Amino acid sequence: MADRDGDLGAFLGGFLVGGLIGAAVALLLAPQSGEETRAMMLQGGIELKQRAGQAATDLRARAEAGAEQLRGRAQEVAEEGKTRVNDAVDAARQAARRKRAGLEGENPNT
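RESULT FIELD:
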């Protein structure tokens, strides 16, 4: 197991060093000047920032719509529960009246 951990660390270290060397070579051999490369990178960063902002706005809108749907459904469920409780209370009251009337010897349906 320890050998595998060492192998993984060596692999990741080599991967990182290779990536850095590759990036340096790519910048040195780029067909445009350093100023053009920086301008391109700056423009790419601006576009990335705009896309990230738009994605965040879209995500916020979707989250708000989902929250509104959940709120509406929760209200429906609460109303259904309230109706069921009221029906149960009414049924219990009627049963209590019938029982009391039966004990008192009255007509239970009045």
